[in-house]
Amino acid sequence: MSDARTASRGFRWTWLRRSVQVGALVLFALPLIAAGWGLFGLFAGGEEAVPAPAQLPFFGSLSSSSIFGIEVLDPFAMLQTIAASKTFALDWLLAALPVLVLYGLIRGRAFCGWICPVNLVLELVDALRRKLGIEVREAPVPRRAKLWIALAVLALSAVTSIPVFEAFSPISAINKGILFGAVTGLWVLGAIVLAELFWGHRVWCRSLCPLGGFYQAVGRAGQVNVRLDHAACIHCDACKNACLCDPAILEPVLAERDVIVRAGDCMACGSCIDACPTRALSFCVGRSAKPARPNVEA
After folding, report:
1. Residue 106 binned pLDDT confidence (cut-offs 50, 70, 90)
2. Strand pairing partners for 281?
3. pLDDT score of 37
4. 10, 26, 202, 224: which is deepest, by most CB within 10 A?
5. How far apart are CA 193 and CA 116, in angstroms?
6. Full set of structural domains in the chain with CATH
7. CB atoms within 10 A of CB 153
8. For residues 277 and 290, what is the distance between their CA atoms, to the nearest angstrom?
9. Distance of CA 42 to the CA centre of its chain
């Protein structure tokens, strides 16, 4: 093992990722605290006038935010709004475009791995389930089901004239619950936790979340990818056991049919990199070409 690989073992992407996840929650809470307001929908102030959080340079939630007066929207929420209202506004597209470009260039499901608070909660549930010794199924629902669920959400939004996922989003249950005391989606979050404990490993994130399905669809263009050094791989399957998405997305690189994980489902979370005992896995930038298959003569 090279000195570079040995020296890098002290760093863990998981530590950085969890810091970013917590930091995102804190970032959205800061405007309320700075304005003298309370969290969870409470107002901590007296009779003196205090500024509204919306007047600060940054304010909002994961669905909709304002940064120095510029509106930023969740692209999937925008699509639901368009479907529900049967109208289109250029302002909506302009507000969603920065988010779409950012995650599109990095990796669509990087949102799921690095920002989504539900993922952070489910990692805690993972740890609890392991501590309790509870065994669950690895893949009770095909991971591509969330693509169809995303399309169904848009169709239902058009039929009901309501942004359907926003009405029960567990992401809002955490993000908007902390900020504004909203309870929308709280029952769904509870159901997800129970499913994670007793039914299937990561069944919500892997297979059911429509927002994850949306980002999976745009994820294949991402430029941040997991790369495998085939010479260093000992095929111990530690990476597959650690994968937060679906171990199947690692099969092409482990079978030496590819050098990077191309599946749009990859969250670029770094869990597989941290788990590899030989440091055969690493992040790279760019879409490496697939290796040419050798000709096999009959």
Report:
1. very high
2. 228
3. 78
4. 202
5. 15
6. 23-42+51-222 (no CATH), 224-285 (3.30.70.20)
7. 24
8. 25
9. 28
**What H or E segment, with its residue span, contains residue 65?**
strand 64-67
Separation between Cα atoms, residue 217 and residue 201, nearest integer Å? 22
User: For residues 58 and 30, what is the distance between their CA atoms, to the nearest angstrom?
Assistant: 9
pLDDT in tens, 185-219: 889 999 999 999 999 999 999 999 999 999 999 87
The alpha carbon of 139 is separated from its chain's Cα centroid by a whole number of angstroms, namely 18
- What DSSP assignment string belongs to 104-119? HHH-TTHHHHHT-HHH
**Assessment of whether the complete model's pTM goes beyond 0.70:** yes
Using a pLDDT cut of 90, give the percent of the chain over it.
Answer: 68
Distance CA 54, CA 80 (A): 24
What's the half-sphere exposure (Cβ side, CA atoms, 13 Å) at 9?
A: 12
Report the candidate in 23, 52, 28, 22 with the shortest Cα–Cα distance to residue 40.
Answer: 28
Tell me which H or E stretch contains 72. strand 70-73
Q: Look at the chain and count its residues.
A: 298
